[in-house]
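Lab notes, practical 5.
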Amino acid sequence: MKPTTHTISIEQPRAVLVSLITPQIKRQETYAPDYSLAELVSLAETAGVEVLATLTQNKENIDSKWFVGKGKAEELKQLLEEHDANTAIFDQELSGAQVRNLEQFLDVKIIDRTQLILDIFAQRAKTREGIIQVELAQLSYLLPRLAGQGKNLSRLGGGIGTRGPGETKLETDRRHIRDRISELKQQLQEVMRHRTLHRERRKKTGVFQVALVGYTNAGKSTLLRQMTQADVYVENQLFATLDPTSRTLELPSGKDVVLTDTVGFIQNLPHDLVAAFRATLEEACEADLILHVVDGSSDMMPTQMKVVSQVLRDLEAHQTEQITLFNKVDLCTPEQREMLTTEGEFLRISAYREEDLDRIRELIESRLMGDCKTFRIPAEKGDVISLLYRVGEVLENEVDGNDMLFQVRVNNKEYDKLGYMLAAYASEQALHKGENSEHV
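Output from the prediction step:
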């Protein structure tokens, strides 16, 4: 007799989406109510949720007990019953008490925007670093809400809101969660230490770092794949890729730079998530050049650009030199393409057009390569001479006695980096020979 097998089925999340609009929320510079709700629909679908209906309420203030008004909560209950929905997803962040009250009244799973984004990140994280960061963000979100958690703690059927650390996370008490958070922070510190060492090693070898940043689904991963033949996941969905990917990009002159794809930004990105992913986003902070990839075909393009600019300011990366790439111009009308302008340098491109990729490479090279400098290096200093070839474009070289004279086009930032290695040689040469050649 064959043994009987039992299959545990996870109920498909079927949700009604809820958005509350208050004067305070509307005053947020990057907030657009209709777009935010449409984005919530995309987020829910990305998480594998079947969206059945949406509900919006305009209210003067947030209800401390129900979040929405009691009348709207009753309307939501009827809507959930009509559509046989088992989940309600809110576009704003809820307190633990609000979750408990709504669950008791509605008898469905209650998820807010933050939990939904964290759940998507939990699905996307593949590397050890990404998994640590997601769990840290989830636990940081859960800890202050433990007292208010209602049926969420007992709904162990899986699905949205329960991925990542898993059910055991939901059964632990505050002390255990705090211990786990401390442990994860230590692990993340170790990951950050290794990442910092890799960055320092790249700096010492004179390799330029270029970071791709932008709103989620703007086409960053597609651009990385097309320019470097990187084996990265590309899909037309929010947060298709999460873990940062770095690949070598060869410029027209033959010089190599490191091109890094960072996690996509989104409006109302959870603060815990920004904090947890700081190690990842530091790639943008440490970059010599930032390529801001913009979905030129999006109706919400100006808002998306503001969100990215705000996150870069929060990371103190807004001072880094930037080039704006208006992507997906092949999806725009000629009139729309003409409207794609911004302050500073920009290109209108399609990530699938090779001639546009060549223009990007040429622009990167022109921005990273700087003025022509003259260097006098002792001929026996092969390591220093090799460094000159790596960090700049050597235009001419000639022998002058026991020294080599180099005419090098080098970026000002790299010129400064050369200082600590060449200062001793330059000072010695200046003292003994009184040369007028430019030294670091």
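Observations recorded by the TA: The two ends are 83 Å apart (CA to CA). Residues 5-9, 150-157, 434-440 have pLDDT under 50 and may be disordered.
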